[in-house]
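Weekly structure sync - notes
Attendees: PM, LS, DV (DV joined late)
Agenda: review two folding runs queued last week.

Item 1: First target. Sequence and structure tokens pasted below for the record.
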Amino acid sequence: MAQVFDRNSNALARASLVLTGLIVIALGVALNSLQRSPWVTRQGQRPDQPIPFSHKHHVEGLGLQCQYCHTSVEKSSYAGIPPTKTCINCHSQIWTNADMLQPVRTSWATGASINWIRVHDLPDYVYFNHEIHVNKGIGCASCHGRVDEMPLMYQENTLQMEWCLNCHRNPASNLRPTSEIYNMAWAGPSSEKPVWCATTGKTGPTAQAVSCVTKDPTKNTEMAMLQTPGYDRQGLPAAQSGTRLEAHPNTGEGQTVSDVSPTSEMIPGASYKAYYSQAELGRFLTTQYHIRTANELSSCEVCHR
């Protein structure tokens, strides 16, 4: 009986199998790159908003605090989109006839909400709670980037599950004192700029359990102001009491005062310890803030309810 296929058919079959395998691998790599690309994650994209609101101008330039507009960030699962009334508080006095602010005036006059486009928008099946992250020592910039340097708001990170899990597996790398949550310029401790922390002995809210300062408690001249009339515990005039936030490291602009946490106040007689790296500080705060273990934080039920 004559052969149906000649001897070269075996080589052709093997080459076909290899080629098919390469196509499958290439397709998998392409799809993996696609689902990580900004086209899918929207990372770095600046959506067209009804009003070209500049965080750089309002935060760095004017020194507005995050929680002035996002009022529910510390006590709700959502940061909240500011109502028109928040804008009118200032813009009923300044820039009252600016064309770009016409949607604000129209919204105020008609009572219709401004149709802001949510930049950081998670899938409906993901449960994310702003309150727990803020009160457990995760700063705004850790997730949203340097918002104070963004003329137009964009998504700094991918917000994909692996990005969340990287933090949940090692939360100490991102923890900071709660008094520094809204400090966009916070860079963590270093050998040149250590952070001193002490336990307060208080029970209750996490923010009250630790006191951290960025100046050596043994050489802090501001302690003398504790007994000076007209000054608060931080050496600020009484009218400006709160936590002093760092200015922009390059321009020196944007220094603000936050009243969100009293924990940066130095406690007389407390035993402060210096921390020279983020790893050391993070391990200390992990214990004091009662952060769950990496295995518990990586459980599916944390985000998927």
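Item 2: Second target, run right after the first with the same settings.
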Amino acid sequence: MRKWLIAVAVIILSTGVMAQDTQPDGAFYTSEYPNVLSEIGLTEAEIQARIDEVWQSLFYGDDDSERVYYPVGDDMAYILDVNNQDIRSEGMSYGMMIAVQLDKQEEFNRLWRWAKTYMYQESGQYEGYFSWHNRPDGTPIDRNPASDGEIWFVTSLFFAAGRWGNGEGIYNYQAEASNILYTMLNTESPSSGATNMFDEETRLVVFVPQWGRVSEFTDPSYQAPFFYELWARWAEQDQSFWQEAAAASRAFWRTTAHPETGLVPNYAEFTGEPVVWDDYGEYFYADAWRTAMLIGVDHAWFNADAWQVEQSNRLLRFFYDLGINRYNTRFRIDGTPVPPQHRSLGLIAMNAVAALAADDPIRLEFVQAFWDSPLNTGQYRYYDNLLYMLALLQLSGNFRIYTPPLDA
């Protein structure tokens, strides 16, 4: 497996698509974040009004039909998965990222205190990790972590340190981020049943850091090389590991994306093949939708792999040929539709973010379709609407890097 990773990395380097040294024109280097919404004729005022509207709906809208952010007491809050009536590390970390991007420190701190109070595990099998979902009263449902939650927690905390400075206790954001990073790579413990969050051999994030099958494969939508690139510069230790993890993630996407459709599975072996798991893992569905966003942001921030342009064009062309306002949401990666089929705002939003990397002119039609789509209300507003808000920030140039104090 290690030989496979090294071989792929060598191919990428030899073809010149690892562009940090030769083409440092991503937003990390230039501080210029693309505003794709302006390319469909929207003004700054129109874009800001939509951002404000979506923020208000998600965080302070109607209790029963709009909001997903619910304050608890004087200093805490959670993001509710309305359909499942639970709180997930995914949603909490997305909420924190949205808050720091929009300069909403009170909401950020409330979410972070709830996560630290109820999701963070001070001891036991998963010491240093966060339970992946809890009940609204704080009780853990499952104590095992979901790796994407930790990944987004870390980066939102680093950004908070960069945007607001570090405070005391749990509000020393940078120290908290560093503690999570340490746990990610220093938890291998057969006696407890927990593993590291990244596979030592491949440098890929594992699906669940738990001994057994769930730590032997990954999720294409958990890859975040643009975050690992930052960790390689900001972490207190293991900088070379995080740089290798970024390269490994980019190489992995090449192996798991279907060469004709661009579709990826929800879960994949470290070598890229779909994992058959609970009538979910092998399909392109709710997890996999997000890969288009992650590739788009990675391209916009680091412009490290020219393949990402080809991949984004390929993915959008697949959906364009199905009908840009008609395509459904669940497929085998070869493009075969799989029931149940329905339209999803989440996929509409994620396909729009592919426009950050794509250069096919059809990209703007996906952005327009996104802009024209209303938020969900009621039972299914959690996941789709959070993805919508992330896409709105990314497409408007408002999903940005905030560098923490490097001498802290």
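Discussion on item 2: Strands lie at 69-72, 76-81, 86-88, 133-134, 140-142, 217-218, 268-269.
Action: LS to circulate a short write-up before next sync.
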